[in-house]
Design brief:
Elements: E1 8-9, E2 12-13, H1 19-28, H2 31-45, E3 59-71, E4 79-85, E5 90-96, E6 109-119, E7 122-126, E8 129-132
Parallel strand pairs: 5-7
Antiparallel strand pairs: 1-2, 3-4, 3-6, 4-5, 6-7, 6-8
Length: 138
Amino acid sequence: MSAVPRFEKAGKAEKPSGRFRRMLDRLSSSQQDLESEELQEDTQASGCTRISECSDRQIVKVAGTLRTVTLRPRAGVPALEAELFDGTAPLDVVWLGRRSIVGIEPGRRLIVSGRLAMSHGRRVLFNPTYELRPLGKE
């Protein structure tokens, strides 16, 4: 048995996989790192694309947690804006003509899909279709 940890799998660097090592990693990680890791696992399990891998004008389906939800008028029209985070990057989700949507609140997990746009250097989805994730998983 070698003392060298297993780092390569299909050309990709990975963390050592022992139970004790995983426990030490979790204890030494910040809460934000743990939440990001959990969100990335949820994204992968739901078959969605990571936000960091999405590009301009691409039709995407992404999953994550809403960090913020605000009402911000655009050109005199009400617009409900939310920031979705999947552990890799943020995504602005905008519903034009809406002041509120039942279930759209900070901390809620959801899956959104639509055509991604870039606005002021940020990824944005306008009027996406969405699916609320069950609350019992938190």
